[in-house]
Amino acid sequence: MDSSWKLYYHCSYFNGQSAWTHLRLAGTDMEGWIYVENLNDFGADKTC
After folding, report:
1. pLDDT at 42
2. Rounded to an integer, what distance in angstroms lies between the CA atom of residue 1 and that of residue 14?
3. Do 24 and 8 contact (CB within 8 A), yes or no?
4. DSSP 3-state assignment of 18?
5. Which of 1, 2, 10, 43 is most open to solvent, judged by the fewest CB atoms within 10 Å of its CB?
6. How far apart are CA 41 and CA 29, in angstroms?
């Protein structure tokens, strides 16, 4: 992930050993799921 991007986290989903966060890229209509290991923090606090 580019550290200059502003990300808005919606929620996180936990699937066994994996964790995913649903997010949106600020200033765009781009949204989707990302594996939390690809983020610089732990993703969303709220679960889906």
Report:
1. 84
2. 21
3. yes
4. strand
5. 2
6. 22
- For the cut 90, the answer to whether the pLDDT of residue 41 exceeds it is no
AA identity, residue 42: F
For residue 39, give every residue at least 6 positions away whose Cβ sits within 8 Å of its Cβ, in sequence order, or none: 1, 7, 21
Q: What is the DSSP letter of 22?
A: E
Let me know how long the chain is.
Answer: 48
Rg (the chain; Cα; Å): 10
What is the average pLDDT score of the chain? 92
Closest CA to 22 of 1, 3, 2, 48: 48
The answer on pLDDT for 3 being more than 80 is no
